[in-house]
């Protein structure tokens, strides 16, 4: 879609019910929304929240964002004031394996090149605020002022919004007069605690308070040193004030979309900002939001972290799958996943069933959305619909990629029917664990209740980390699991529905500002690397300035 066919952003804002004074154009086709917009809807009825999640991703792709965008457009076609509330793409995957994160085909967010690249500068602001604190930390080490930080116990790393494995371990302070020399590291910005803080903050005051609580290290005696102790939180907040405002764009069919925040779900909490979701609920009838990767990661954190903090709860969950991905979970290699194979499909449905079981634990009604492909056979379609009948869930096919909102009407109708059943008695929050549980027990409840694990093994280093986190006040915080997105286990090679496995926690990090403990499992990396053939090689800048190749299939 060329930019000259986009609707004016103020028209999109008007359709969403936003007052013109609250809309701050950021170029021609995107805008920031002032936080004053909340006051205009104080006490007004709230919209109905629909969470879009998925089975564990495979190289075949599931199309969760495509389905989210298509569903919002389908709901709009049914006369609903629908608003999509989604995450911002990170440049790491845009130029890495995945490519752009704005949907696909006729179910895309626009202007897609802008959103996939610099957008409104939010992620750059987060990177800058993160690295300002890193510079202040090393400055405090150099001058031994305003506190005596122990260089051996500095926890705060640096950040970059790019996949760059060479920065996983670095030395800083080298050269005469630049020390002390110490080991350091970079995380991708989507894994930064500042990203998590921005997405969980409720207003500027809360943002600054959270930033002040960030633990950057300790003294030699073990006393925690925070960003507030270093006098950094106000300056960091100043850098983030514009980024705190949600972003307004549109779908290819002009449906309003609020796109804000982008933490990864395999190494962070994987949800768009609380402010964006609340804004959409204040102005929309039905709000479609998305949590990253499969239900075991993004959706679990959406429910146990974001909803707990924000006081939200979805009315229904859409679980996205494709025939190809299910067949891969049934043991078929990606090269053969497009070929008809009802036996492999049936085997893969056991993986889908595991996620539905977890959904029922949370007390949430579900719709299975099958992201349709042209080579899906009638026999395979029948297998999936029979599975739905046997498990008491509606299976709806979505052709949003090829046909936009019109191709999502079956899914939209299934979602509307499910929502109507909850109008009289919306689902009540039901969490996987209680905050009063010991941290080890919280992790076990997630591993057993969501992944189907037998138990959790803590390395000696992880137990030491846990003890330190508890001493620093982390005992009653929620858990953010850092785990591979490719499997229910901590081994990315184990697809399907594995049994008799343990989850190994090798490290625990305290994110006091975000307000959770991060439990790292397996070989999960907080700084990804580029593949042998990065997506950056596909990008083409045309003579008229248009950009293609950011999205797969362009």
Radius of gyration: 23 Å
The CATH architecture of the domain at 47-80 and 283-424 would be 3-Layer(aba) Sandwich
Shape: globular
CATH uppermost class of the domain at 47-80 and 283-424: Alpha Beta
Instruction: Give the oligomeric state.
Output: single chain
Could you list some keywords that capture this structure?
554 residues; alpha/beta; Rossmann fold; Domain 2, N(10)-formyltetrahydrofolate synthetase; Formyltetrahydrofolate synthetase, domain 3; 12-stranded mixed β-sheet; 4-stranded mixed β-sheet; 17 helices; 35% helix; globular
Structure description:
The chain is globular, with a radius of gyration of 23 Å. It has 554 residues and is α/β, with parallel strands linked by helices. β17, α13 (378-391) and β18 form a beta-alpha-beta unit. α2 packs across α15 (409-422), α7 (204-213) packs across α8 and α12 (342-361) packs parallel to α13. Helix content is 35%, strand content 18%. Strands 1, 2, 3, 4, 5, 6, 13, 14, 15, 16, 17 and 18 form a 12-stranded mixed β-sheet that branches. Strands 19-21-22-20 form a 4-stranded mixed β-sheet. The protein contains 17 helices and 24 strands. Among the domains are: 47-80 and 283-424, Rossmann fold, CATH 3.40.50.300; 123-242, Domain 2, N(10)-formyltetrahydrofolate synthetase (2-Layer Sandwich), CATH 3.30.1510; 439-521, Formyltetrahydrofolate synthetase, domain 3. The termini are close together.
């Amino acid at each position: 879609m060329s930019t000259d066919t986009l609707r004016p952003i103020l028209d999109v804002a008007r359709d969403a019910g936003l007052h013109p004074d609250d809309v701050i154009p950021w170029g021609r086709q995107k805008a920031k929304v002032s936080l004053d917009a909340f006051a205009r809807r104080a006490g007004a009825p709230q919209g109905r929240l629909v969470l879009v999640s998925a089975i564990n991703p495979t190289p075949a792709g599931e199309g969760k964002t495509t389905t989210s965008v298509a569903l919002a457009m389908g709901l709009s076609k049914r006369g609903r004031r629908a608003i999509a509330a989604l995450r911002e793409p990170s440049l790491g995957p845009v130029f890495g394996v995945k490519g752009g994160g704005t949907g696909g085909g006729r179910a895309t967010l626009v202007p897609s090149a802008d959103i996939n690249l610099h957008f409104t500068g939010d992620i750059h602001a987060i990177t800058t605020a993160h690295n300002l604190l890193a510079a202040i930390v090393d400055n405090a080490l150099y001058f031994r002022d305003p506190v005596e930080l122990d260089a051996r116990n500095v926890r705060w790393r640096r950040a970059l919004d790019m996949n760059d494995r060479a920065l996983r371990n670095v030395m800083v302070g080298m050269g005469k007069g630049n020390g002390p020399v110490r080991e350091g590291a970079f995380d991708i910005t989507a894994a930064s605690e500042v990203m998590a803080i921005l997405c969980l903050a409720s207003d500027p005051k809360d943002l600054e308070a959270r930033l002040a609580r960030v633990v950057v290290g300790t003294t030699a005696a073990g006393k925690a040193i925070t960003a507030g102790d270093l006098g950094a939180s106000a300056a960091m907040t100043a850098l983030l004030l514009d980024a705190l405002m949600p972003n307004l764009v549109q779908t290819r069919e002009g449906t309003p979309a609020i796109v804000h925040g982008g933490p990864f779900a395999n190494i962070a909490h994987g949800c768009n900002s609380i402010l964006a979701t609340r804004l959409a609920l204040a102005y929309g009838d039905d709000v479609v939001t998305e949590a990253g990767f499969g239900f075991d990661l993004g959706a679990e954190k959406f429910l146990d972290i974001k909803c707990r903090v924000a006081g939200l709860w979805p009315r229904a969950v859409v679980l996205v799958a494709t025939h190809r991905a299910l067949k891969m979970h049934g043991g078929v290699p990606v090269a053969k996943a497009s070929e008809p194979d009802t036996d492999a499909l049936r085997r893969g449905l056991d993986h889908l069933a595991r996620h539905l079981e977890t959904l029922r634990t949370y007390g949430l009604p579900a719709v299975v959305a099958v992201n349709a492909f042209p080579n899906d056979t009638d026999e395979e379609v029948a297998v999936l619909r029979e599975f739905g009948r046997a498990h008491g869930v509606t299976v709806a096919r979505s052709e949003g990629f090829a046909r936009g909102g019109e191709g999502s009407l079956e899914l939209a109708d299934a979602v509307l029917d499910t929502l109507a059943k909850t109008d009289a008695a919306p689902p009540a929050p039901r969490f996987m664990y209680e905050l009063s549980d010991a941290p080890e027990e919280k992790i076990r409840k997630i591993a057993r209740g969501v992944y189907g694990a037998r138990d959790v093994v803590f390395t000696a280093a992880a137990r030491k980390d846990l003890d330190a986190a508890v001493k620093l006040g982390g005992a009653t915080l929620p858990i953010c699991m850092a785990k591979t997105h490719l499997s229910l286990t901590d081994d990315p090679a184990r697809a399907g529905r594995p049994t008799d496995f343990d989850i190994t926690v090798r490290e625990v990090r305290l994110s006091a500002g975000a307000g959770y403990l991060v439990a790292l499992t397996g070989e999960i990396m907080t700084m990804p690397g580029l593949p042998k053939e990065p997506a950056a090689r596909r990008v083409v800048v045309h003579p008229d300035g248009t950009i293609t190749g950011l999205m797969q299939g362009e």
